[in-house]
Write a structure and sequence with these properties.
The chain is of the alpha+beta class and about 325 residues long. It folds into four domains: about 60 residues, Arc Repressor Mutant, subunit A (Orthogonal Bundle), CATH 1.10.10; about 50 residues; about 90 residues, SH3 type barrels (Roll), CATH 2.30.30; about 80 residues, Alpha-Beta Plaits, CATH 3.30.70. The protein contains eleven helices and eleven strands. The strands form three sheets. Strands 6-5-4-3-7 form a five-stranded antiparallel sheet, with helices on one face. The protein has a four-stranded antiparallel sheet with strand order 9-10-8-11. Helix 2 packs across helix 3, helix 4 packs antiparallel against helix 5 and helix 10 packs across helix 11.
Length: about 325
């Protein structure tokens, strides 16, 4: 174990008024008494910790409040990086060598007790997309070079089209990876789901399109609910009841949504939408505890879907 880890451990015990001594370090890290003494001397003499020894308690304490190690926040940064690395693996990035190198480095510098804490943190996402690492790297290189990617795109209906796209954003939406960019085939901005792309390559040709400004692109992406982007086609007003109302009140579906409690058991959500089918899937998961008030097209869509569901069980 490194001296930094031993110093941080000892410092925490002193802050918690546990009156640690040389034996505390010796037993925790299996080091010699002389090493433990050097650690304490270093903390007091070089890091200017206000250490005092209490003979009755046979241990050290701080005579002044507020002392911090120069690297004290490093532990929190390392732990946060560990959480990000774990999230990256759950988001389908475990195949990237950079993620593996980060994991190896963190394991070298992270204390045992921090590793135990990190193991206690879980991410469970049953619909997370697994994307080949090379596919992600190709897209990132294209974005850096403002280049063009070519690929075959497979729709859920089995259709396949050849596309050339200028990628402008790599988006993780509900643990699924998407590319948002200008499609040269459709001559418009489009969203592509990475698992449906095959034979991906970065072309030598450069993009000649006029790329939207950063602010304009972000406004377009933020305009409406869901992954299908574009200017809002309608405003949805949805009423939720009972436990569904409390669940939705704790959630953010869109940054421009409004939430209004109508009474103790009814909540009204107002939200801008682009695609009827996408918001419908979200509403349907609440069953009879959600009712669409507007727009009428959304009400009709959900009514038709509900009828089809019933037919499946007749």
């Amino acid at each position: 174990m490194s001296q930094m880890e031993r110093l941080y451990f000892f410092h925490q015990r002193v802050k918690d008024r546990m009156f640690p001594n040389t034996r505390t370090i010796m037993e925790r890290f299996e080091v010699s008494e002389s090493t433990a003494r050097r650690d304490i001397d270093y903390l007091r003499d070089f890091l200017l910790a206000p250490l005092e020894y209490d003979r009755q308690k046979n241990g050290w304490y701080y005579s002044e409040d507020g002392f911090k190690l120069p690297f004290e926040e490093t532990h929190d940064v390392i732990m946060f990086l560990g959480i990000l690395q774990k999230m990256a693996k759950e988001a389908g990035l475990s195949g990237l060598p950079e993620v593996k190198r980060l994991e190896d480095k963190l394991m070298q510098i992270m204390p045992d007790y921090s590793r135990a804490t990190l193991r206690a943190i879980r991410f469970e996402h049953i619909e997370a997309s697994r994307v080949p690492a090379e596919r992600l790297k190709t897209i990132l290189r294209a974005m850096e070079a403002k280049g063009v990617i070519a690929f075959e795109y497979h729709t859920p209906r089995g259709e396949v089209t050849s596309r050339k796209v200028v990628p402008l954003r790599l988006i993780n939406y509900q643990w699924r990876w998407y590319v948002y960019g200008y499609c040269l085939l459709r001559r418009a901005m489009r969203m592509f789901h990475l698992p449906r792309m095959s034979e991906l390559s970065l072309l030598k040709e450069k993009s000649e399109i006029e790329i939207p400004s950063e602010d304009g692109l972000e406004r377009l992406l933020d305009a409406s609910f869901g992954i299908f982007k574009g200017r809002p086609g309608a405003i949805a007003r949805i009423k939720f009841f009972d436990d569904a109302a409390f669940i939705v009140s704790e959630q953010t579906w869109h940054q421009e949504q409004t939430v209004e409690w109508l009474n103790r058991r009814e909540l009204l959500l107002t939200i801008p939408i682009t695609r009827i089918d996408e918001i419908a899937m979200k509403v349907l998961q609440y069953g009879k505890r959600a009712v669409v008030l507007e727009p009428p097209e959304l009400s009709s869509y959900i009514r038709d879907e509900a009828a089809k569901i019933v037919q499946n069980y007749v």
